[in-house]
Write a structure and sequence with these properties.
It contains 18 helices and 9 strands. It is α+β, with helices and mostly antiparallel strands.
């Protein structure tokens, strides 16, 4: 049995984990900068003003436990004065505490302790911003990825609802583990700030060196970055899992299988859940759905049985409307063909267009070379005419045959065609003159079919002039007035209704070629 889709689900999980680690790396840099800033400022204070108040670290911490406000040095100094020292030590301590230099040192330290809160608040805001931006993008990606995987797995290209930012934000606001992630970030940074201030005060009371103090600050920040990494990894597992489940719901999936990572680091609880199937409606993070614990590396895969498949919809093309419609997922190709194609003239024409695509493209390229601007600009337009507009296609084929004949037999060219004359009276006094009994009926045909008339006869004149060099001419004899020729052209006109046009010419002894008549004739 193939494990491709299980492997794919695990691959997606690891991709998400890698992305989470990339965000964690950015957060670590924030912590590191904050650590360097505080280490630098603390080093300046403890290097210049190192003092020891005869206290061990244990005594120092007990003393700090009695201090309510870790930022209040006045309260700390009072606690020192009240401590049970010997009379000699108490006198030494009194002199030291009241010395101006000591007071200046205390003021510097007071500023540093206050700065810790500012630095950690900045860390909080940056971490929250990084996490929120990443989780928002991850949630949207997980939703669409789950639907994509199901479509690939089933081969069904069904329609689905898009996930909105509002829906993603709703998932981000879920307190799935009892506390929102932003509050956890705040709690972590607040605890770190308290720990840093306490360690600085212990350094003051025990006389730690500046190096010792710096090392302790760095260690505390290192522990903070571990908390930050654990948070983003665990939250990303939840957000990806929840939006994946929303994708399952959108596809009509009702069950999922739990997939644990198969290695020696997998937790005991995830080992026991691996491979088990649960109803999607009963999923609960921490109980039967990832994440089961911090740093969880488990994921899920949808269960798609015949019953689920029957409820799904798949996309189907409707040739009659040109639109995509949803049909039952178990509709077969033969059923689709019977419903949408068979007996439908337009659909059957499209079927021919698809089957003949290769040969039609070759034909399109040949026609382009010969017909130029008269051919549709796109291959799709060419096929549309070929299979759905028989009259227009007939004229296009006829036009190609005639022009190609001249290309193959240049000797059939109308003599002196480049200088052919199309007299204005032939248009204004003959074709389009209502008083012309013979000419006007011919002109009406041009108007009705091609859109030419008295107000734009020059366009017809231009079209005929261009045709003189594009179509072969047939010699029709000489009755003593000159050589007579006839050309059969295809004009496309102004109404998108091509016509077969006959043009008569006469070439006199001076070699000048003039149009004698033109009319529309039904093509055979």
């Amino acid at each position: 049995m193939s494990t491709y889709w299980e492997d794919r689900a695990v691959w997606d999980l690891y991709q998400n984990m890698d992305d989470a680690e990339a965000v964690a790396a950015l957060i670590v840099r924030v912590y590191r900068r904050a650590s360097m800033q505080l280490v630098f400022d603390a080093q300046d204070i403890f290097e210049k003003y190192m003092t020891k108040h005869k206290l061990s670290e244990l005594e120092a911490r007990r003393l700090l436990d009695a201090v309510q406000d870790k930022k209040s040095l006045d309260e700390l100094l009072q606690a020192l004065k009240n401590k049970d020292f010997s009379e000699k030590n108490k006198e030494e301590l009194q002199r030291e505490l009241e010395a101006p230099a000591y007071r200046a040192r205390m003021e510097r330290l007071q500023e540093l302790l206050q700065q810790v809160d500012v630095v950690m608040e900045n860390v909080y805001h940056q971490e929250q911003q990084f996490d929120t931006s990443f989780l928002r993008d991850l949630g949207e990606k997980a939703y669409y990825q789950s639907i994509y995987n199901i479509q690939k797995r089933t081969g069904l290209g069904f329609n689905f609802s898009h996930i909105s930012q509002k829906q993603v934000e709703q998932v981000l606001r879920m307190n799935w583990s009892g506390k929102h992630y932003s509050k956890r970030i705040w709690k972590n940074t607040e605890n770190l700030a308290q720990a840093l201030k306490e360690e600085m005060l212990v350094s003051l009371l025990t006389g730690r060196t500046d190096r010792e103090t710096a090392q302790i600050i760095e260690n505390k920040f290192r522990a903070g970055t571990i908390q930050a990494r654990r948070l983003i990894r665990t939250e990303s597992c939840f957000v990806a899992g929840e939006l994946t489940a929303r994708g399952y719901e959108e596809c009509g999936v009702e069950k999922y299988r739990y997939l644990a990572t198969l290695d020696l680091r997998t937790s005991e609880i995830c080992r026991k859940l691996d491979g088990k199937v649960f109803p999607l409606s009963e999923r609960q993070a921490g109980k039967n759905y990832p994440p089961m614990h911090p740093w969880c590396r488990s994921t899920t895969i949808s269960i798609i049985d015949e019953e689920t498949l029957a409820r799904m919809k798949r996309s189907a093309y409707n040739p009659a409307t040109g639109r995509i419609e949803t049909v039952p997922s178990n509709m077969t190709y033969d059923q689709w063909y019977e419903k949408y194609v068979k007996g439908n003239t337009k659909a059957e024409a499209q079927e021919k267009a698809v089957k003949n695509s290769a040969s039609d493209r070759e034909q399109y390229e040949r026609y382009q070379k010969v017909l130029g601007k008269e051919i549709p600009k796109s291959f799709a337009g060419f096929q549309e005419i070929k299979y759905n507009e028989p009259e227009k296609w007939g004229f296009m084929k006829l036009d190609y045959q005639r022009r190609n004949e001249l290309l193959q037999h240049p000797e059939l060219k109308l003599p002196n065609a480049e200088n052919a004359i199309l007299p204005e009276p032939k248009f204004t006094k003959y074709l389009f003159d209502e008083n012309s009994e013979k000419g006007y009926p011919k002109g009406r045909a041009f108007t009705d079919r091609l859109g030419y008339g008295m107000d734009n006869w020059q366009k017809l004149q231009k079209a005929l002039k261009e045709g003189t060099t594009q179509y072969p001419a047939t010699f029709k004899g000489n009755e003593g007035f000159g050589d007579r020729y006839e050309q059969k052209m295809v004009l496309y006109g102004l109404k998108d209704t091509p016509a077969n046009v006959i043009v008569a010419w006469i070439q006199k002894e001076d070699n000048v070629v003039s149009m004698t008549s033109t009319y529309i004739k039904e093509a055979k």
